[in-house]
Design goal:
Layout (H helix, E strand, L loop, with lengths): L13 H12 L7 E4 L17 E4 L4 E4 L10 H16 L3 E2 L5 E2 L3 H7 L5 H23 L9
Parallel strand pairs: 1-3
Antiparallel strand pairs: 2-3, 4-5
């Protein structure tokens, strides 16, 4: 099935990046669409201590990318890695862990994710990207110095 298109970003075109990542790294036909997430609302609550760069929504078969990443200095290879990471969730489904806990990043998932070229370097890059976003727009995005992938 063909992916739904997303509104174009200012600096990164998610739909074309999704198609490139799918065709380059996945042999099976993956149903997936992609979109920019909504910018967080400013509130008077405590500042968040993390940012979710991307997330996979299984029911909608959709990837959401944090809008803070649509900046000219964020490398396209980093966006591609986040897309790859989220598509790994479509392939390596969550497993039941100890008790009621669900394992999302289980060994099979991590093995698949580690097939991406320079994955360790790109994971390390996420700390630098978060630090720069945080420095530039701490009040606009209310983020701290941690990051997560879902």
């Amino acid at each position: 099935m063909r992916s739904k298109s997303c509104p174009p970003g200012t600096y990164h075109q998610l739909s074309s990046l999704l198609e490139e990542v799918k065709s380059e790294f996945f042999t099976e036909e993956l149903e997936a669409s992609i979109m920019w997430g909504r910018a967080p609302r400013r509130t008077r609550r405590r500042k968040r201590t993390s940012i979710v760069f991307g997330s996979w929504w299984e029911q909608q078969k959709r990837i959401r990318i944090h809008p803070a990443l649509d900046r000219p200095w964020v490398p396209e290879e980093f966006i591609r890695f986040i897309i790859y990471h989220e598509l790994c969730h479509a392939v390596a489904k969550p497993k039941q862990g100890q008790g009621r806990k669900r394992q999302v990043h289980h060994p099979e998932f991590k093995a698949l994710e580690n097939r991406y070229p320079d994955s360790a370097r790109l994971r390390a890059m996420s700390r630098d990207i978060l630090a720069r976003i945080s420095k530039e727009e701490m009040s606009a995005f209310s983020i701290g110095r941690r990051h997560t992938f879902r």
